[in-house]
Amino acid sequence: MSDGVDAAAARLREATRVVVLTGAGVSAESGLATFRDPGADPSDPDAAYWSRYDPMQMATPEGFHANPALVQRWYLWRMSRGEAAAPNPGHIAIARLEREMERRGGSCTLLTQNVDGLHHAAGSRRVHELHGSILRWRCARCGTPATDIEGPPDDAPATCRCGGALRPGVVWFGEALPQDVLAAAAEALDRCDVFLSVGTSAVVFPAAGFIETARARGASTIEVNRDPTPITSMVDVSLQGRSGELLPRLMDVVFGATD
Ligand code: BV8
To answer: Can you give the pTM of this predicted structure?
Structure first.
């Protein structure tokens, strides 16, 4: 029974300019939690984040200003988990796609919602971090970059010399995505002939709207995801399963098996 890999491969074989959109499901294969999982068990420390934490408290400017030490601790804990994680075969397959596309004179632009840096660690170079990076911190008041953040003692937040609290370089709800990243995404979507969505629940905007832009340009659309999402019924090819298994297989069918 074909699971769609051949149909997806046929589209990628013809592609000249690919856009890949990734979400937390790609990093789930490296042992990192996702955000939304209807079957999550909130008592499991590795369960989807929003089954255990309130996104309005942990991922908004208002939540940060209400309790900066709590939000700092959460992001420092996530950063340590990310730094201990390794890229998985799904990350590596996406990096291979970029190399193979460039080898044939085309391009592959990766738009990731992930903030863990694992795509760069896997070798992807043409990467735009839509929601910023958990690895880059700055002062919330003066904007001075901060490194070697000491976890806050008790409820006193880690602060900058100016007295401002330190924050992760991620995009929270209600914050604008970086203009340069949005411009790069728009340019890539404007020219793409294949749009590949991997490991995202496709509910957070503006990223969740990118597929509409790609379709409006006539691009073929492919989704690789463990569960159905709001875009599953829209895509040309839907591969349901684990990205760490499906992506390497897909790249082998398109570009030949690696030894
Ligand atoms: C903004 C912080 C404007 C970073 C996060 C329309 C247009 C614009 C905005 C909006 C709009 N409608 C609503 C909004 C507001 C809001 C929004 O989208 N709300 C939603 C919830 C309705 N958007 C915003 O606020 C954005 N800002 O547009 O600002 C503006 C303009 C000018 C001036 C001021 C403001 C900001 C959005 C960024 C929010 N930041 N977190 C962090 O902590 O990491 S949200 C959070 O969700 C993360 O960023 C994450 O990246 C993002 C998306 O989640 P996913 O990556 O998809 O992860 P999820 O767990 O949901 O899904 C994982 C999937 O993987 C699942 O489907 C699962 O089945 C699958 N999976 C699991 N395991 C595997 C797998 N698949 C394959 N293999 C596996 N092994």
So the answer is: 0.97
